[in-house]
Amino acid sequence: MSDPEHTPATIATDRKAPPRRERTRRHPWARVLIPVAVILVWLVGAGLGGPLFGKVDEVSSNDQTSYLPESSDATRVQQLLGEFNDSDAIPAIAVFVGDGELSASQLDTISDAVADAPSVEGVGDDVSPALPSDDGAAVQAFIPIDGSAELADTVSALGDELRAAAPDGVTVYITGPAGFSADLVAGFAGIDGLLLGVALLAVLVILVLVYRSLLLPIVVLSTSLFALCVALLVVWWLAKFEVLLLSGQTQGILFILVIGAATDYALLFVARFREELRVAQDKGTALLAAWRGSVEPIVASGGTVIAGLLCLLLSDLKSNSTLGPVAAIGIVFAMLAALTLLPALLLLFGRAVFWPRRPRFEPEVVAEEHGMRTTGLWARLAGLITKRPRVIWIVTTLVLLAGASGVLQLNASGVPQSDLVLGASEARDGQVALGEHFPGGSGSPVYVVVDEDRLQDATDVLLADDGVDAVSVTAADSPSGSAPVTADGIAAVGPPGTPAPEPTVVDGNVLLQGTLTDAADSDAAGATVRDLRSSLYELDALVGGVTATAVDTNDASIHDRNLIIPVILVVIMLILMLLLRSILAPVLLIITTVLSFGTAMGVSALVFNGLFDFPGADPAVPLYGFVFLVALGIDYNIFLMTRVREESLAHGTREGVLRGLSITGGVITSAGLVLAATFAALSVIPILFLVQLAFIVAFGVLLDTFVVRSLLVPALAYDLGRAIWWPSKLWRRGRP
Asked: Which residues of the chain have pLDDT under 70?
């Protein structure tokens, strides 16, 4: 932190205060060589990390099962599937729908097209026969996609091939697990280029408007980009060596978080540098003073965000627990870039970086200002707070509570897999068509692993459930790889007299497949899985599959949300207590932040339901929204309250509040606009989770910036006076 005797705020204690003493230039060459060396180090790191932007898919996965706890039933079943089927193929379902009942000729043409499907690169050989529906108006076929193939490309090529071969009047859809996975891959396709481009453009526009300069926005954005490139370099190699799990979702959040956080820290540093240039003629002296004044709030802010993110390590879901260290790595490099690369660039350019609005060396004017801005929005707001602080914080609190009441309308119990991708979806349309002519769960069965001696008992349980349409058992010697199982046992497959195939046995277990009557991603199918697990408990059976994976994921998300949110609050509160040397101030700041989060979630729930008509939200949405809004919202608390405390030491608490607000109001507002814009950029990726997160965080940050940090916190602190620092020395000895 800056020496209080030399800050612009305290120089005002003497109207004729002399300018800051300039340092003797013993080694002028160091002012060039050191910053150049720092810039070169970052340039090398960015040069190594930059090319990895197009290669993240090489080390990432969007498979939900891979993110479940190892102990979950769905994970254990998924691990066993390869032993029963000797394949890591992802099933696709081709659905052929006619205008009416399909003719014999059309059925023959469809059968030939399905038989030729393995000619498409990436399609496996074990293609099922074309299976007509009972109403004769549709046909389905199960087509395996090699796990090592480029899923989206293979599914697209398969669809094109089947549509070209299908008879006239027949519509073809590719759905099932492979179809939905291809939709997700396509949805994340723009994450390297489109997302980053939109985020950078939004930040650039805001920076140009804020600084009204051409060079400074480029310097700040370069700092953010270099931080992102080096962070990506580290994360990519950690994912490469399987130290971390990386998904498209985590990748997008990393990009946005680093750009937003690095720009915020840069804004704080640049604002301090501009202040110091007004009282120090030498740019090196001003830069050193700015660094000293910025390092504590930047490190404290970044450290608080990192601590909050690392609380995600407590998560049962690997998609959450791996986001913590990935995002924390990004914040580390955002801080390092703001405290090393940015100062090096500013030292080289000096005042010229602000052109055409270069700050003047004017210590006398600063002294006349008494360390506090007397004109502009923030000066007027400070004046308003002095008149009616209690009215302001009470009214603001009531308004926020009213907004928070909307959280009762939030439906965050999970969404169907078919609704994860926004916009047009062939897989979704295909699932609808499939449900109209076949059992809704066709192609996405519930898997049951049970002891071979209890095969029939487990079958009876499955068949007794109204949510199960049919049951089969994996059998390697069956032409289709499985054989139907009825209440009378395993049925023969083939001409009359053909013996029933023997089930495949692995470590004394068999694999049953139950075709669900409802769509695999529906609430009804989820209820069926829960009922089956309860009924099969005494048989020591494991229940897995697509539906079970969704059930386990939702349950783990709810567990994580209930555990991690309180832990984050406690951790952040302890950090604030150490930083502000107070108990009451951190408690109040946490309360205002939680209130702000509640309002953001309440308003978001009303918008999601009434305006966007979303089908609901993933249970992880509130958790992610909380992590980013609380951890990042505390950033602005730290920016404001560290400056308020600094000013309070010299001028008393109430005067310190006004000074802190007038000095930091502009930079906090700018930082909030930047962070809101970067998170809003997530909405260009047509994934429901990211679009919802984009709105929640963008709206929440703006609410936090313009209402909570500008009105509620300053008014509350001003009303309490020095009591807010209880029980520190500043409370006991300070002025009101």
From this structure: 1-28, 30, 61-67, 86-87, 190-192, 368-375, 494-497, 733-736
Give me 375's structure tokens.
């004109």
CA 253 to chain centre: 4
Per-residue pLDDT tens over the stretch 685-716: 888 988 999 999 999 999 988 899 889 999 99
d(CA 640, CA 2): 15
DSSP state of 707: I
Read off the tokens for 551. Answer: 């059930």
Cβ contact 589:641 at 8 Å: yes
DSSP 408-431: GG---S---GGGSB-S--HHHHHH
Closest CA to 195 of 671, 686, 698: 686
CB 284, CB 293: distance < 8 Å: no
* CA gap 653, 720 in Å, rounded: 9
The CA distance from 443 to 173, in Å, is 13
Please report how many Cα atoms fall inside a 13 Å half-sphere around the Cα of residue 26, on the Cβ side.
1
Q: Which residues contact 233 (CB under 8 A, 6 or more apart)?
A: 45, 48, 49, 52
Structure tokens at 397: 């609190």
CA distance 180 to 429: 11
Instruction: For the chain, list the domains and their CATH numbers.
Output: 1-58+192-367 (1.20.1640.10), 89-187 (3.30.70.1430), 369-409+581-736 (1.20.1640), 436-552 (3.30.70)
pLDDT in tens, 265-316: 998 899 889 989 988 888 989 999 999 988 988 998 888 889 989 999 998 8
The Cα–Cα gap between 273 and 442 comes to 64
Helices (H), 515-583: 523-535, 546-580
